[in-house]
Amino acid sequence: MTSHQSGSRTYLTGFGNQHESEALPGALPVGRFNPQRVKYGLYAEQFSSTAFTAPRADNRRSWFYRIRPSVVQGDYVPCEQLGESFQTGPLAGSVPPNLLRWDPLPSPTEPRDLLEGLVTLATCGDALAQRGLGVHLYAASVSMHHRYFYSADGEWLLIPQQGALRLRTECGVLDLAPGEIAVIPRGMKFAVDLQEAAARGYLCENYGAPLTLPERGPVGANGFANDRDFQYPVAAYEDIEGDFELVAKFGGQIYRVSMGHSPLDVVAWAGNSAPYKYDLSRFNVMGSVSYDHPDPSIYTVLTSPSHTSGVANLDFVIFPPRWMVAEDTFRPPWYHRNVMSEFMGLIEGLYDAKESGFLPGGSSLHNCFSPHGPEAAVFERASQASLAPERYRDTLAFMLESRYPYQVTPWAMHSPLRQRDYLRCWDGLSKHFDGSPQGSPHADTE
Q: Is 293 a catalytic residue?
């Protein structure tokens, strides 16, 4: 493999910017994207992850200058080895309103790369209609040797929970650790190498509009996820021949094709459709400094908009370390029933509304209008707490929130990882109502 990084920079920065990078000097044409002859005998190839006529602000495309064009490959055939546990919406069957929670995936007992270690918990929407998403878990013990992948169904949001990963993509290399996320555009080819003995985490396959930064509204020019903190790879190519396999996810089905060379042979690229990563510790948290608990939308890192303004196809929301300072306020999340459906995962520590049973690497699902909130012990403690400034230190949770109800896979419903006693965490919520003038012990004392 041959690779090169321009200058001393490891990554290009700036969300959605028009980047350019070359692994060999002069590989990028000057003044035109598709010259009659490209330097080094390269082929020009455009990669578009939005329609040609998408508005300029939304348009995403990159030009690749590669050793062989992507069309140099054989015919695809079904890949039955990977199709059973990797599901795509819409699923057959009912959509349960039940509150659901799962333990983490165990480490594999035999060699499995990330594709082999994928299992689908839930999906919503319809991949062919380009709306909704799929939620998957992965547990891997080996790298993707001589195997590459792309999804035509949606872009990939990777959320590691254990074990660092190296993403080798057509645009270059991204190193990804727990506490960071990466997004790979729909249709882009890549491979995943493990940097440690095993890796575990979450995967969101976004069928809808590409993820972008949410508007800040009256917050102004700064805060939340800042553009400058998103990192893109510099060009790096693989000029190697041999027996390789390219796996494609297309219309919910898994296919494979044999290749005689690595498909990651892009020597230079220019554009804004490229993989990127983000360190979640750089998120600039906004919160209340007076009273009441703000809506969790203030923790939105990325959003995939839908055709209805203000109602997301997907919001990626985090609950990171932060200060809580509001006065006369119940500080954990309030009890609520929501038009949006909520899938949650825990990367590390404790989530403040669920202090027992919700484990790092675990998952929960609260579909639309299903009531949920703090477990009984958390409610009692928070109702009686002394309201001094409090630092939430050892925590990092996330939520995949969607306007569409999630359909749960049969595997997820029948898996031994499912906590069938999840509802018991609310058993201790007792009646405190007191209609007398003195009020109840939980009455507002102001």
A: yes
